[in-house]
Amino acid sequence: MAIPGQKPKPHIQAVREGTFRPDRNSEGATFAPLSPVEPDWSELLPGVGSDDVRVKAADVWARTIPALVHSAGLTDPQRETAIEYCVTVARLWQAERELSRTGLVVETERGNVKSPWVTIAGQYRSHFRSLVGELGLSPASATRITPPESGGADDDGIFD
To answer: Which ranges in the chain belong to alpha helices (H)?
Structure first.
């Protein structure tokens, strides 16, 4: 069951903003300041038909993950969330391309029905929205992330 109310700020963000209170904020887990390592997309997404998905996932990684390392302090132990984001974006683009090729309605032996790609795209879009909020990638969620200050005394050198 979800906890009601606003999502808590990361500990380091509360410290940087000067709003940390031990009675209200938890330090939570701290991770080693290692940058996430890009996965081998051919191992993660095998198969001949997945070439375009691998290329898109790698492109999303190259454009997004370095920015998240810098802006949100993303570390290697958190890379699975980053990988999930890249795969979700790539699969959503794949579903949208298939919808463009086949249309929203497909003809079957039972008549015209909604394309299965509509359902797939909807599910990936829903997952995309949750990951975007989690990672601070939408304009609204980005306002909740305070970039780490390089070399500041309050961040224990984690983001130097």
So the answer is: 11-17, 41-44, 51-72, 79-102, 116-135, 139-142
* In contact, 129 and 121? CB cutoff 8 Å: no
d(CA 129, CA 151): 33
Please tell me the predicted confidence (pLDDT) of residue 37.
Answer: 86
pLDDT at res. 152: 42
pLDDT at 151: 44
DSSP-assigned letters across all residues of 6-34: SPPPPHHHHHHHT---TTT---------P
Q: Count Cβ atoms below 10 Å from residue 24 Cβ, excluding itself.
A: 9
b/e code 67-93 from CB counts within 10 Å (16+ = b): ebbebbbbbeebbeebbbbbbbbbbbb
Name residues of the chain where pLDDT drops below 50.
Answer: 1, 151-160
Residue 47 DSSP label = S
The span from the CA of 45 to the CA of 43, in Å, is 6
Instruction: Supply the pTM of this predicted model.
Output: 0.71
